[in-house]
Amino acid sequence: MPMPATSEATHQSTEATHQSTEATHQSTEATHQSTEATHQSTEATHQSTEATHQSTEATHQSTEATHQSSLQLNIQE
């Protein structure tokens, strides 16, 4: 026995609401994953910047040591 038109329209409306809710959920999840990926990228950039800083500092110390060694050689001559 076919459903009355009103009952069918209510059913379709409920189904459409369900699909909309599911799509919103998927969108929210995608946004969360994007936010997490951005956070990880930012953290990786921070670590890279820190490593570059440490490398620059080590180069500075090496240059200073070379300079001091050169001074010592000049004194010995």
UniProtKB/TrEMBL annotation:
Biased composition (Polar residues): 7-77
Region of interest (Disordered), ranges: 1-77
Superkingdom as given in the UniProt entry: Eukaryota
Name the record gives this protein: Uncharacterized protein
Organism of origin: Puccinia coronata f. sp. avenae
